[in-house]
Queue: 2 jobs
Job 1
Amino acid sequence: MAKKLMKGCEAIGEAAIQAGCRLFFGYPITPQNEIPEYMSARLPQVGGTFVQAESEVAAINMLYGAAGAGCRAFTSSSSPGISLMMEGISYIAGAELPVVLVNIMRGGPGLGGILPSQSDYFQATKGGGHGDYRLLVLAPSTVQEAADLMIDAFDMADQYRNPVMILGDGLIGQMMEPVEFKRGIKPEDLPHKSWATTGAKGRKPNIINSLHLNPEELERHNWDLYKKYQQMQKEVRHDTYNTGENVDVLIVAYGTVARIARTAIDSLTPKGHKVGLFRPITLYPFPSEALIAAAQKAKKVLVAELSTGQMVEDVRSHIAHLRPVDFYGRAGGMVMGAEELADRVEKLIAG
Amino acid sequence: MPKPIIEKDRCKGCELCISACPEKVLALSQEINAKGYFFPVIVQPDACTGCRYCLIMCPDTAIQVENKGKTTARSVALTQKPFSYCPGCTHGVIHRLVAEAIEGLGVQDRTVGIAPVGCSVLAYEFFACDMQQASHGRAMAVATGIKRGRPDLTVFTYQGDGDLASIGMAETVHAANRGEKITVIFVNNAIYGMTGGQMAPTTLPGQVASTCPTGRDVKLAGYPIRVVELLKELKTPAYLTRVSVHDPKAILAAKKSIRKAFEYQLKGTCFSLVEVLSTCPTNWGQTPKEACDWLKDNMIPYYPIREFKIPEAEEGDAHVQ
Amino acid sequence: MYNEIVMAGFGGQGVLLIGKLLAYAGMKSGLEVTWMPSYGPEMRGGTCNCTVVLSDRQIGSPISQHPHGLIVLNLPSLDKFENSVRKDGVIIVNTSLINRMPHRTDITAVPVPSNEVALEAGSNKAANMVALGAFLGATGLLEMTSIREVLEETFAAKPKLISINHACLSKGYEIGLARKPAQAAQ
Ligand SMILES: Cc1ncc(C[n+]2csc(CCOP(=O)(O)OP(=O)(O)O)c2C)c(N)n1
């Protein structure tokens, strides 16, 4: 397929179609309305179904039902809507259902604003809903990567029977970039899900459930989940820029901020500053080993986020004993400019 | 001689005053105001009869009328802040009616309003009384908390169709069924305005919206919900009525109903809800005047304008008379 | 080659569209491109802008603190963005609706009566095309043929509009070309 100029949201929608997904449940919210809008037009063309749910609470439970019935399905929302879905996400994690969730983050807390933000990092990577569970969290930084990760997300969800979240922000969702769909999956080619409630003809009934009243059984379930999350560690992904040699400063950033950091680095290099970028692509599992290796080749580390400091806690927990970790954040929908970030790096180098 | 007084910098050039004037007193100016809009000017001063239709129709409270030495005034229950709505959006008209009811009943200093999530999310900037901002759909739950905690307050919610009838439907049904003594202003514009024109639970069959690009298909999305008809099946006494703001006469009737809804609350009678049929020129893709006509021709046939339920005590009274 | 361009005006003046055309034409010319709109409720009747980045290598930030080029269709946009433009940058000023020229002297300002020019060409909607043409004339950033190609694709469903938009682009191009600064020739 030739390259097309698409908004991040539209590319995410098309990627779901390419992944063989034929079901979407969701509720409008800025800045991701283009996803339900795209699906409402596109799904009927491929024999799929779009449902505008009455709320995010309903949407996530529709997703539970569809995934439990063995269908590829996804939902998308933005921060306040994702908060409403939390109970359902916890049920989905408990019942071990493969679903894909998209959060195009905006500034909070509360109604907050609608501009780009990364302030749902804790919610996405540390649970969010109740109970001992984890999501696989993928953070694209280009429209192409959003599309690619979206397709991978469906496969990962099926492989681990676990919810996978694409964590973007208003900028990733609203920006247009060229995108190419390299991989197309037909729904009929998807593997059969023997555990799904497809009708018990010729087999024992399947139950989709997260209730375990017996504490011993529930504990066993919790440890089984834990083992699964350990296995998921092998999905870690990261990217680096300009880290070939020893650097004065290593910027650690994901998503939108990572690309701003590239521009900042390009402006610092001609000035003789050696600055590299470490970009986690999976936020859970967190690419800690690679981060430690990269940090060891840096004098100082600067974590940059569109929040008052969330991922920086994970970074510190892995490398605070090795290198000084500084933080630069903008919040509430304010997006740092490349020059602003470069200034900050120069100050850090100057000491 | 009566005459309209136009505060030109409040105007957004929607021209609803011009089409509302039965005597063609007004026309659009050649110059633009500070906001960049063409505003109305008086072209036939002698024709003005003082009917106030221009004032009644104006969604931006940009017009007052001088007659027999007296001049109308903007309600003090509104702040001075210009409404943030699109040109010709009738949210502004409904704001004025609510403010006039609050002012008229003298309860401004013991009223608490609840702003929803929707285009009217900034209502807390426009009503000059205490306000709380609620999460999407939960305004009536918030109102319940306020009213139960401080029963002496006059509590109203102001909600769109997505807020009240989609995500907030459970709160709506239960607040009504508990008979919360609150007043609900329900603005039905058959679309999600704030988020850019998605399908609402009240979008008409066949009506195009951004999440039903080929028109609402009732086989997939069901028929639009008639909220007052639905609530009227509840036994708990309530005042349930539907009004519209597409023309000056309808607005005058709406004004009476909104005032009544507040009066019932003051009497401690019951839950009261006024559904107001409203326009969304931007997302309907129409001019403000076309939108008013579209409302009249398409919404009113599906959403009949009348009182659906009045408190039982009064039904009794009506019998005696 | 690396260029950040901001386009700004009232909602409805079509700044998002000319941004898309620019980005799309850049993509067809083999460049990396990004297009980033301002979004949100401020768009309702208010001002609206977008940023396009064109580059021959992977693009980092899709937003710009100091653009190389600025196209402004109304006065609030000139007020807002004038000072952000990089030294030696180009500002296209729609003089039909803007009653002043930039105060800056370290940039090239190109006055373009876009609305009048578009009206002469027979359209009351294509002032944005005139401004885009002027920008391309003054900067030589992309070949006109690439813009013309994407214009035809974009308006494929409304063939009647194609010729008038071509005309507006050309008229703007001539105005811009006449003002092309020496250093923008690169
Ligand atoms: C939990 C949550 N979901 C979704 C949204 C996004 N949202 C904001 S306003 C709105 C609907 C607005 O429609 P309506 O209630 O009909 O009011 P209108 O804007 O038309 O006046 C939605 C879905 C939100 N803010 N919070």
Job 2
Amino acid sequence: MEILVLLKQTFDTEAKVTVKDGRILDDDATLVINPYDEYAVEEGLKLREAGGGTVTVVSVGGDRVEEALRRALAMGADEAALIEAPAGADEFTTASLLAAWARGKQFDIVLAGNVSVDTGAGQTALRFAEAMNLPHAAAALKLEVAGNKATVHRDAEGDTEVVEVPLPALITAQQGLNEPRYPSVPGIMKAKRKSIARVGAAELGVDAPARTEVTSVFQAQQNRRNTIIKGSPAEQAKQLTELLRGEAKVI
Amino acid sequence: MARNVLVLAEIRNGALRPVSFECIAAGRTVAEGGTVTAALIGEGAGFADDLIHRGADKVVTVTGDGLESYTPDGWVGALQSVCLELKPDVVFLGHTGIGRDLAPRFAMRNTAGMVSDVTDLKLEGDQILFTRPVYAGKAFVTQIVKQGLIVATIRPNNLAALPVDSVRSGNVSEMAAPALDLRTVIKEIVRNTAGGVDLTSAKIVVSGGRGVKSAEGFKPLRELAVVLGAAVGASRAAADAGYCDYAMQVGQTGKTVTPDLYIACGISGAIQHLAGMSASKVIVAINKDPEAPIFKVADYGIVGDLFEVVPLLTQEFKTLLGR
Ligand SMILES: Cc1cc2nc3c(=O)[nH]c(=O)nc-3n(C[C@H](O)[C@H](O)[C@H](O)COP(=O)(O)OP(=O)(O)OC[C@H]3O[C@@H](n4cnc5c(N)ncnc54)[C@H](O)[C@@H]3O)c2cc1C
């Protein structure tokens, strides 16, 4: 089975986010595989272990993204490709590049994260499916592949939808799908020797200039009162109700 | 600059979702003399008047084989048919399960720009300036669509809906969607939702975390919620431990809520939880551990045992509200 995983490198979610001069400072931030994409990598490896084939990971981004791809290789992925990101790329650009790269290649299943924890937009994977004319099932909690179809238990606002989708298809991973493995030492050594294919955006012949533009970035206003209410539990409860009505005016 | 706006209206549990009214209000803000049309797919012709009373100029209902329940192929196709007919400049959807699943595909089919999870919007010159959270709500960006069709999903409970105007009238029409190949087939829907107040549109949410310790431990929270007319939410840890349904989970993987009041009981305040509730207007934290990170984002904090504090709070509110 030929398995493709779309992967994005993101901030470590625990990292502090600082906005300076209208941009988010990320030069020193620890970057990781987007957690939801890591579930996708793990699921790809499990599918390969069950049915053979190869797992290819692909990403759009700058040089630093090699680290994330290298980690996916260390987890066990077979091949990796990094497509150069044009300046100002948005989800439309990224999905178009990924699709141009994937076109003509044979994949039975494409896996991706449900959302990325940095922009939280949740667009690229589904746009890719549309561009490739693949059916999709998003937010998978469980995936079973039998013959040329996949059965997916997907999270639909807390309800679980069981859907069937013919392959090739795109499936996005929700938290709960699996527990990603840690790369083993031999895995890390092996990954070091693998090469990552670098693809220039121009080589793909894609003309997909960003449709959107971020015009400003600002830090969330945290004007929280941070009032700690003291006293016995009964006094605390009484004071809180009074504050919620009198001061905060939400009751 | 007059814009024609198309809104995808959604029905859940037999009622229009409040976010659909919020999308119509947003549509009115950006229409500037253009028409706001609400589309209902599969069912719901009986809801057309409600949409018009909330500010829509027109309602179009789309019917066709297999459109009664949501599938990506069916609904993207149906919305596309409406779009080809009406040629809107702007399409708004709720940032709901369906909106999130449908909008990116629909945007791509139209090679359109899309802004996800919008919490605010305004007009600036010739542009619609959208505001949306990034980095789990630690920062915000403003974003525009530079050219072509504008698609946006609107986060529930952030933009005000227009008041009901029951004398407003408008045109209601029907459309038949072309037969489509529905590749993704729904086999079964397991409802985990307990019913009660809809979490994403609730004005008050009472949430419990691992600190509630058992399914039984949610009882005092439910009692408080009843008195306040609130929805009950939960952290991932509470759902994982089986204390409650995943449908109640708030956070990055669960629901995003923006109530006027969020009461977090026995929740530590992990970043993934904050991603789903940090935009709440007022946050109350009740936690035994004075060092719990939830206190950093709280307006009011009580360091104490939730099993002691919550029932007392219920009593106080009963007295205050005369319930
Ligand atoms: C990719 C990813 C996605 C995630 N998505 C989500 C998500 O959507 N939503 C989410 O919530 N989490 C999510 N998580 C998990 C998150 O990281 C935390 O593990 C989780 O939020 C912790 O839940 P908690 O606060 O209930 O539990 P804990 O962190 O264990 O906190 C329990 C708290 O209860 C307090 N407590 C205990 N007993 C009492 C008492 N009697 N009275 C008062 N206080 C008491 C303790 O002091 C403690 O602060 C995600 C994690 C990952 C990796």
